[in-house]
Amino acid sequence: MKGIKFSENVTRIDTSGIRKIFEAAGSDAINLGLGQPDFDTPEHIKAAAIKAINEGFTGYTVGTGIPELREALSTKFREENGFSVSPEEIIVTSGASEGLTIALAALLNPGDEVLISNPGFVSYNALTEILNGKAVSVPLAEDLTMKPGTVLEKITPKTRAIVLNSPSNPTGAVASRADIKALAEIADDHNITIISDEVYEYFIYEGEHVSPASYSDNVITVNATSKSYAMTGWRLGYVAARKDYIDQMLKVHQYIQACANSIAQKAAYAAVTGPKDSVNAMREEFRKRRDVLVKGLSELGMECAPPKGAFYAFPKVSNSTEIASKMISNGIIVVPGTAFGSEGEGYIRISYAASMKDIERALSIMEKVL
Ligand SMILES: Cc1ncc(COP(=O)(O)O)c(C=O)c1O
Questions:
Q1: What is the rounded distance in angstroms from the CA atom of residue 80 to the CA atom of residue 213?
Q2: Are 227 and 81 in contact (CB under 8 A)?
Q3: pLDDT, tens digit (0-9, with 9 covering 90-100), for 138-165
Q4: What's 114's domain CATH number?
Q5: What percent of the chain has pLDDT over 90?
Q6: Which of 93, 144, 226 has the most ligand 1 atoms within 8 A of CB, as the residue to mutate?
Q7: How far is the centre of ligand 1, averaged over its atoms, from the C-alpha of 125 (Å)?
Q8: Which whole number is the average pLDDT over 216-241?
Q9: In angstroms, what is the span from residue 184 Cα to ligand 1's centroid?
């Protein structure tokens, strides 16, 4: 038998814990494990894609993305996020996932450190490790947000980046303006880059969305149409940053991706420039489900502060794996907090990107089994 010598960085990382849970659950289980809106892509967005196909817009586009989309995103950042980037300071990517990849690839030399919230979205650690960096975990405060003081304690001469994710997956927490401003100041003072993952920006129920790029230009803003417009399968994202960042990220993008999907780019243009009714309707529906879920969980004796954003509740439990396994064996898919890092012990993630009927059914099963 031939023994292939694989990359140590890759063999060391584990496959996604969330995927394993889906595989373990029965096919008729109630799925509260999903990380995507349970809505269809709005009609006007689909129509733009169909038009693009019919018009033969099916070749490679310019690597950075079609000019009208970058123009529209530049306007979006100015009007909604409070910072200025020109279309030349934007790259259209294959989802936020590619945006995170090219940001980290542009920044990291072997052994460079990236500060990542623990618990945090699963890709941050894995991508850092794949790209030869070292993931340094930043424990969260009681309100499940990343605090500037804790970040300061973790900074070393090797720190290159801080990954910020507000609203957060898996906690649903939303960082305050004061904390974002303080983190931006830390980035400036220490010449560290903030990689700001803002994919849940439109799903905020209390508080406000603040982009760190409105306070510092040491920021790579990563976003996508994936969650905002129920377009996860279209694989369309974007990054915005100062030109020196863009120049390096563009090289990685060109060689790993060439360009984002041409049809999805036309669809994204329709999404970004079109009516926001469907986004607002999704947010209001998520808010209703969140309220029912949080009330139900507290009636079951689970401590769960109402999440301010995204579509995840992160209640406290006695033992993550035990409670998650119990729920899964009773037909409710949830994710143990430990899938998002060691500090996720004592929590489970429950997604409310599921119908009200499923949430209510799940609550009544939980009442019986817990
Ligand atoms: C916080 C966060 N960032 C990025 C992504 C990936 O987004 P995309 O599907 O656009 O690659 C996800 C998906 O679950 C996410 O939760």
A1: 12
A2: no
A3: 999 999 999 999 999 999 999 999 999 9
A4: 3.40.640.10
A5: 93
A6: 226
A7: 14
A8: 98
A9: 22
Can you say whether the dihedral through the CA atoms of 30, 311, 186, 75 is positive or negative? positive
Q: Are residues 84 and 212 in the same domain?
A: yes
d(CA 47, CA 341): 40
Same domain, 231 and 305: no
User: Which atom of ligand 1 is closest in space to residue 121's alpha carbon?
Assistant: 1
User: Pocket around ligand 1: residues whose beta carbon is below 6 Å from it?
Assistant: 35, 95-97, 121, 165, 169, 197, 199, 224, 226, 232, 237
Tokens at 268, concatenated: 């994204």
Residue 1 has a pLDDT of: 63
Cis geometry, peptide bond prior to residue 212 (ω within 30 degrees of 0):
no
pLDDT digits (tens, 9 = 90+) for 120-145: 999 999 999 999 999 999 999 999 99
**Domain containing residue 349: CATH number:** 3.90.1150.10
Answer whether residue 229 shows pLDDT above 80. Answer: yes
- Domain containing 306 equals 8-41+277-369
Q: What is the pLDDT of residues 50-75, one digit of tens each?
A: 999 999 999 999 999 999 999 999 99
In a domain, 3, yes or no: no
